[in-house]
Every structure is written in C-alpha cells, then in structure tokens.
Amino acid sequence: MASGDVLPHASIIRQANADAGGEGYDFAPMLAGARSVVSEADLAICHMETVYGPPGDYTGYPTFKSPPQVARALRATGYDACSTASNHTLDDGADGIHRTLAALDRAGVKHAGSGRTATEGRSPAWLRAGGAKVAQLAYTYGTNDIPLPKGKPWSVNLIDKDRVLADARAARKAGADVVVVSLHWGTEWQDAPDRQQLGLGRQLTSARTAGRPDVDLIIGTHAHVPQAYEKVNGTWIVYGMGDQIAGDMINHAGAEDPRGNQGTAGRFTFAAPERPGGRWKVAKAEFVPFWFDTDAGRVVNLNAAIDRGRDVGDLRDRIRRVVLSRGAGKDGLAMGR
After folding, report:
1. What is the DSSP string of 241-276?
2. Four-CA torsion 250, 256, 260, 262, nearest 10 degrees
3. What tens digit of pLDDT does each residue of 116-139 get?
4. Is the omega angle on the peptide bond into residue 213 within 30 degrees of 0, that is, cis?
5. Residue 13's Cα: distance from chain center in Å?
6. The dihedral of CA 82, 85, 87, 92: what is its sign?
7. How far is Cα 30 from Cα 73, in angstroms, rounded to an integer?
8. Which of 57, 73, 109, 213 could form a disulfide bond with 53, CB atoms 3.0-4.6 angstroms apart?
9. How far apart are the first and last CA of the chain?
C-alpha cells in the first residue's frame, strides 16, 4: 500500500509537541487512524515531503524543517519505506538531506529519491514483500528553484523519462520482481491529472524490455488533493494520493481549501507469475479514503469513521468520485476498508 504527502506545517509540529506532553514530539497519535491499513500490508510506502531540521530548529511553510521524530512515528505506524524526492528536498540543503536519511535509517525506514552519496542517490529502496523482491524508485519535478548542491547532482532525483526508465531497467536486471516508481508531479490544487502526468504516465507504462513492462506501478504525490487512479497500458497509475498529514491548507487563490486534507491510500495485491521471469501482475486494486482532521490533529479512515456513525459520508463520496473519474472502476478498482 502507498499513501500521500507527510507535510508537517507549524500547526502539525505544535500538535506533535502537545501529544508528547510538551516534551519533545510524538507524531504517532496523529497517524494512529491509518495504522490498521498500513500495518496489514506486506509492504507500506509513504511520502516524506519535508526534510528534518537540527535540534530546536523546526519550521513549517514555506521552508520546512521537521522534527526527526516523524521517522519513528512512520515506522511505528507500519511504514517500510518512504519516497524522499520532493520540491522541498533542498529546503535545508545537503545538511537537511543528511539529517533526514539518517533519521529514517535509525527508525528502520528505507528510502528512495535523495542521497548522501552518488551511489545512494542513484539506488532504489530494496524491499521484500510476499516473496517478491521490490525496487522503489522516486523522483520530483523540481526543487522550488533551489539549485542542487555544488558538486552533488545526485542529492535529489529529478524527473526525466530516460533516467527513470534506465533506473527501472537496471533494477530489473538486479533482480527486481516488482518496480514501483514514486513521482512528485502534477499541478497543485488540480483534481484532474495534467498534461505532463498523462503524457509521462503513458510513456513509462508503454516501455518494455523483452516484452515485459519496465514499470509495474506508479504512485504520485504533490498536488495536495486526491487525483484519479487509472490503468494505462496494463499498469496502474495513481496520479495523486493527496495529503496524509498537513495543516489547514491555503490554495493559490488565497482561500482555505479543505481538499488539502483529503487523501487516499492505494492498495495493490500482486500475484506471482506462472513461470519464472514473468510479470507479477496486480490481481486486486483498491483505494482507501482518508482525511486529516485538523481540529483533532488526527488521520481519519473515512470508512471506519462512517462505521462508527460519524457524518463524513459526503467527504468519502467526493474522494471516491475523483478517484474513479477516469474509469478505473471498469478496470476493477474498488474502495477498500
């Protein structure tokens, strides 16, 4: 399973401090509502949009530096790996990348998309799930015009079709049964995927080596709103999962936009091939609608909340309409719990 942006605004940092009793930061309580979905998966992937700051120097928008305790909470929730390539990866330069990846390492969360060395920057996160060897690759459309650290072009992976496919083919050659590509892309606040997402998605899913697709799943972040799921050239694309954790979001028109606290988790069950060397195919595709309740400071599984009698059916149904807006239901995508 995979979920959307973890984006600790100043209000989120304050909530984590309150949840720690005013001493330090505890992000686990706000993620508890996702734990059953995350921990039940053989492999769970998150998107860590921000970098971690030095002790006592934590900031929200526009230049994010998050407490490193986020990493521990992600592991406690059940996440195995995170994409770390985003437009905020360079908010604190190379030092921010070093602190972030070190904290994820200490927490036991693997990562892809940024690196402390050239080798790390080019390497996928290697994962095991249900007998499959999985390679996760991650890339971002840009870095908010912050230049790459001098002499360190590998600090964060930028989206380039040829680079993505070369990396995917290298991962396959190194033994990957399933190649997952995390893309930080799209147009903020736009429910529909944009031209670049549609075009790149078609190109990546059509690429094949010896008749076998080079990419097995694409999971997208960045738009801050849930976007459609679609099966393209036989491969599932999640154009945008929305935000998993974020404060009250202000859109480009300067208005508070509740869509910025809506999201989904994509859940894909892969079946082993009948013959060695064949493709691991998605046998079951699902999405789970989520919402971050900024008043309570908690992630909410909307289906579970409805089961408990909470009046969030309209919110759940809106997310479902967007997710299915490109015909994914006809290809078997269903709403999970």
Report:
1. BBEEE-SS-B-TTSSB-GGGGEEEEEEEEEE--SST
2. 170
3. 999 999 999 999 999 999 999 999
4. no
5. 20
6. positive
7. 9
8. 57
9. 12
pLDDT score recorded for residue 276: 85
Which DSSP helix (H) or strand (E) runs through 305?
helix 302-307
Residue 195 C-alpha from the chain's centroid: 21
d(CA 20, CA 284): 39
Q: Which amino acid is at 109?
A: V
Please name each of the domains of the chain with its CATH number: 2-270+289-326 (3.60.21)
Contact 104, 50 (CB under 8 A): no
Tokens 């390679």 -> residue? 135
At residue 93, what are phi and psi to the nearest 5 degrees? 65, -160
Q: pLDDT tens across 61-85, in order? A: 999 999 999 999 999 999 999 999 9
DSSP string for residues in 224-237:
SSB--EEEETTEEE
Amino acid at 93: G
Q: Dig out the tokens for 142 from the structure.
A: 């840009």
